[in-house]
Write a structure and sequence with these properties.
The structure holds 2 protein chains of 2 kinds. By secondary structure, chain A is mostly helical. Chain A has 2 domains: 13-60, no CATH class; 71-285, MetI-like fold (Orthogonal Bundle), CATH 1.10.3720. Chain A has 12 helices and no strands. In chain A, helix 3 packs across helix 12 (250-285) and helix 4 packs parallel to helix 7 (145-170). Chain B is mainly alpha-helical. Chain B has 2 domains: 52-87 and 289-320, no CATH class; 99-275, MetI-like fold, CATH 1.10.3720.10. Chain B has helices at 20-29, 33-59, 66-69, 80-86, 89-122, 125-140, 143-153, 160-167, 181-208, 213-221, 226-254, 257-265, 276-286, 290-319; strands at 62-63, 75-76. At the A-B interface, helix 1, helix 4, helix 5, helix 6 and helix 7 of A face helix 1, helix 2, helix 5, helix 6 and helix 7 of B. Chain A: Belongs to the binding-protein-dependent transport system permease family. Chain A: It is a multi-pass membrane protein. Chain A: One of its GO terms (cellular component) is plasma membrane.
Chain lengths: 286, 320
């Protein structure tokens, strides 16, 4: 892993300086995350005092309790969960079928399909959300789980196809064929041999879809305009909007942020090894 | 969708050689199978992206404003929306600001990312781990949660930044960072760079680990200075990664809707701080001028597709 250092383990001044800078950079990058958790544990009286408290000494979970009992948290969590689950399930299903098609078959239009998928995954929500809003309003799907989920699936499916294609192509077809020679039907061979080998790919793609749907803001903002139908990111935005006009209980806002962020961070850290190694494989080959 | 979405799929073994045989037999047996497998994905893409794109293209040639919202049939006006749009100085201000913001942010992100990757490469295992964990935490944070924290950090009443600067002897008591466009963009840049650097740092670090120790040792023995080693060996070796990462950064920094919208919601004036995304939002959702909003959206799409072209070509090359 480490490269390019000659006689190692000799503490040269340059190395010590580099380590010092590295620690400072790490502190700078982790500070906002620390500040979020720290503020979420402190009462408003401490946060409004003139000297900030950098560690949550004498902190409590009161802010979390207040936020959860506020009544708006559970509906938002419900919306986010429903939309995210719908997106993950359908996205995986659709992307998996498409990935099978493009990595197991040669057919006319394959190359142009792959090309289209790659371009589509680059399209910004900002360039389409007005039209998508009109579409959902004409289908009477504004402020609905289905409306947002349709848009999310379409937004996430292209990259998921591309990601799964790599995993499917990584399972050699000879394996399946060997199983068939040994007497399994094509369907059996697929379910007994190929699918288990694809499990890591499906998990990685599923987590990717989860993170995208859970964190999405732009489309949700346009489609879910009624307060009862807010997802968690829109619910968080509500606190920031309120802070523009009146004094805010930042402890509660940070508790709300922490509630939204923690599941994401946990998931991200679990899969990050796979995500970055995928990224590395893709990028380094160059 | 967000800057987090970086990873490229694990590279497949190139699936071309050695395969034509089973495929040709398969093609005869079930020519319709691959198409059937594509149906669900294509259907949802056509519904959620294809149709809106067509509608948007068509609407960009229509007079489609508030009156049309209430039932008046839209009239075809040709390129009027486009000429109106691009003769409006406000549009050029927004486009100019967006491009400037995007280039400045991408440049700072890539430079910092490379420096941090070099740092990861230069320090010992424990320090590197500390740095990587910090980077990962920042990378993992949901955009909206990050925005609320940063807005609190820069809060004009009790934000930690104002407190810190005041402690240093500068009077920043009750200084509102979001009021003036320049300091608004400064805050936005800090946030966007903070959230984008980890991706660049990890990608470049991965490329750095591929450079063999022998090459670097040989260069050092031959008397190359660190500077020479960087420009003559490291840079050429990480160039492919660097180009892709820079391109992605530029594309992603054009679409900073969530970040700008949240900062505006926290109390910034919108007209002087709008970038492309928030401006389209205001035209479409705010003033229901769907003709103009569509025209500007088409412009954004064309810009993105043009920029994405090289990235897609690169991915296709890897695929075959």
């Amino acid at each position: 892993m480490t490269a390019a250092v000659l006689p190692r383990r000799r503490l040269r001044p340059g190395r010590i300086a580099a380590s010092a800078v590295a620690v400072l950079v790490a502190l700078a990058w982790v500070f906002p995350v620390h500040w979020m958790v720290n503020s979420s544990l402190l009462p408003n009286t401490v946060l409004t005092s003139t000297t900030p408290r950098f560690l949550p000494v004498g902190g409590s979970f009161d802010n979390f309790i207040a936020v959860i009992n506020q009544g708006t948290f559970w509906p938002a969590l419900g919306m986010s969960t429903a939309i995210t689950l719908t997106t993950v399930v359908f996205c995986l299903l659709f992307a998996f079928l498409a990935a099978l098609a493009i990595s197991r078959f040669r057919f006319r239009g394959r190359a142009s399909f792959v090309l289209t998928v790659l371009f589509i995954q680059m399209l910004p929500a900002e360039g389409l959300f007005i039209a998508q809003y009109k579409l959902m309003s004409s289908l009477n799907l504004l402020n609905s789980v289905i409306g947002v989920s349709i848009l999310y699936i379409a937004a996430v499916v292209p990259f998921t196809i591309w990601m799964l294609r790599g995993f499917v192509a990584g399972v050699p077809i000879e394996l399946e064929e060997a199983a068939m020679v040994d007497g399994l039907s094509r369907t059996q061979a697929f379910f007994r041999i190929t699918l288990p080998l694809l499990a890591p790919g499906l998990v990685a793609s599923g987590v990717y879809a989860f993170l995208q749907a859970w964190n999405e803001f732009t489309i949700a903002l346009v489609i879910l305009q009624k307060e009862e139908y807010r997802t968690l990111p829109l619910w968080l935005r509500g606190f920031v909007q309120a802070s523009a006009t009146r004094a805010t209980d930042w402890g509660q806002v940070m508790a709300a942020s922490t509630l939204v962020a923690v599941p994401v961070i946990v998931f991200f850290l679990i899969v990050q090894g796979r995500l970055t190694s995928g990224l590395v494989a893709g990028a380094v080959k160059g | 969708m967000t800057a987090m979405s970086a990873p490229t799929a694990p590279q497949a073994h190139p699936d071309s050689p050695g395969q034509p045989e089973p495929q040709s037999s398969r093609r005869r047996r079930g020519a319709a199978v691959p198409y059937a497998l594509l149906v669900p994905a294509v259907a949802i893409l056509v519904l959620a992206l294809g149709y809106p794109m067509l509608w948007q293209t068509w609407t960009s040639f229509l007079q489609f404003g508030l009156a049309q919202q209430f039932g008046k049939p839209p009239t075809f006006v040709g390129l009027t929306n486009y000429t109106r749009l691009f003769s409006d100085p406000q549009t050029w201000a927004v486009v100019g600001r967006s491009i400037a913001f995007c280039l400045v942010n991408a440049a700072i992100t890539v430079v910092l990312g490379v420096l941090i990757a070099l740092l990861m490469n230069a320090v010992g295992t424990v320090t590197r781990l500390v740095l990587q964990v910090a980077m990962l935490l920042a990378w993992a944070m949901p955009v909206i949660a990050s925005m609320t924290v940063w807005i609190w950090v820069f809060d004009w009443r009790r934000g930690i930044v104002n407190w810190g600067l005041t402690q240093l002897g500068l009077d920043f008591t009750n200084h509102n960072w979001l009021e003036q466009p320049l300091s608004f963009y400064f805050v936005a840049t800090v946030i966007v760079v903070w959230m984008s650097v980890p991706f660049v740092a990890f990608s470049v670090y991965a490329a750095l680990t591929q450079i063999s120790d022998e090459v670097m040792e040989a260069a050092a023995l031959d008397g190359a200075t660190p500077r020479q080693r960087f420009f003559a060996i490291i840079m050429p070796m990480i160039r492919p990664v660097l180009m892709i990462v820079t391109l992605l950064q530029v594309i992603w920094d054009l679409r900073v809707f969530a970040q700008i919208k949240m900062l505006q919601d926290a109390g910034a004036p919108t007209a002087s701080t709008d970038l492309l995304g928030t401006y389209i939002y205001r035209l479409g959702v705010g003033s229901s001028d769907f003709g103009m909003a569509s025209a500007l959206s088409i412009f954004v799409l064309i810009l993105t597709v043009a920029l994405s072209f090289f990235y897609v070509v690169h991915l296709m090359k890897e695929d075959s």
